[in-house]
Design goal:
This protein is of the alpha/beta class. The protein contains 15 helices and eleven strands. The protein has one domain: Alpha-Beta Complex (Amidase signature (AS) enzymes), CATH 3.90.1300.10. α2 runs antiparallel to α3 and α5 runs parallel beside α6. 57% of the residues are buried. The model has no long low-confidence stretch (mean pLDDT 97).
Amino acid sequence: MIPSITEAAAAIAAKRLSPVELTEACLARTAKCEPQLNAFILLDAEGARAQAKAAEARIMAAGPRGPLDGIPFAHKDIYGTKGMATTAHSKVLQGHIPTEDATTVRKLAEAGIVMLGKLATHEFAFGGPSFDLPWPPARNPWNPKHFPAGSSSGTGAAVAAGMILGGTGSDTGGSIRGPAALCGITGIKPTYGRCSRAGVLPLAQSLDHTGPMAWTVEDCAILLQAMAGHDPADPASANRPVPDFRSQIGKGVKGLRIGLVADWHDRDLPVSAATKAGLLAAMDFFRKEGAEVTEVKLPPMADYAACGWVILLAEAYAVHEHWMRRDPSLYGELLRNRLVLGALLTAADILQAQRKRRALIAATHAATAGVDILFTASATGEAPLIDAVPPWLFLDKPNYTMPFNVTGWPAITVCTGFGEGGLPVAMQMIAKPFEEPALFSAAHAYEAAHSWRAKRPAMVG
């Protein structure tokens, strides 16, 4: 069984586990699973082996740099990597090799991670699942016929399958939390500005977040510790102290005030039976552990969705206009059609969406004055078949994740069990800005009391 980052870090520090052995185990798992999952755009096995040997020598001589030293890892292929292709899963950037690392890539390298390569994404983090790109879409390791969600699809699949212990994701409307939900792992979208986006290819700058994805809550806290911090190279980077993200883990939830956003998953967009059962069981757990659970009324999901998607489409088109005008045929059909919507928006549309955003942020703050954590679903249910995902699903129905891109609040996805076909289901927990330690504490309390982390996809044993 591939360990969690927390488990591996303890074993490496005690010299019970070698980074070389761990990397070889991940590479063997990748060799077994990758032909079915297509999680990697680029696998650098020899580079990873060299980094693992260097980490082992470093640790034997002076001990580990920290809990990430020698940990197998990979980056979503919108993160710039010096000397290694960064393509955004698109023909537009095929062969593009950055001359500098993204800030978060550099910081994770300094923490000692062993980088296995670059992971599949939806094209430019928006167009997918697409079957007309230079690389196939990633698939769900619980059943490769099913969708892993996106756009951090390769990261979700690779972490769940044990090909890596952690990876980077990005989240503009749910692209960390969606794959975490459907792949049965943990992913956190931090507070807007908490992690630098410098060197990461943008989708919509006022909604974009970078963050980690891993097997457990504590693993995500360890990764966020390395990724977070002010960066003058990102104009939206928050100049705030970085707390110890694990400082409240293990303290339990007694006295925590949890706001249940029941309207969303009961009426706005009803969830599957297994998802509902998981949410109800989680609420029962929190109550029994001493948390105070009350129902919170937020604006309808559709209001956040309408606001968020107008802003996303407008900003995404602004990023891509020069390439679209030059040669739109380089894009996959799905992304090209989505980007064109941004060209049709008027200045009035965009300004009204920005005004609505301010109103929704104010309403969210007012509605949550008496709670510490919000609670709802991450996804409607189990992963659909990959060839049955509607191309315009994001316009047809709202989702549970976009509201917290609109507000910029931190939100985490945690597995709550398994539903139809043995596919994972999940919950989403949300904290107020820069309150990630409380979020990790509550999510870890639930996770530690349940057995879901003991089960990996059957295809990998």
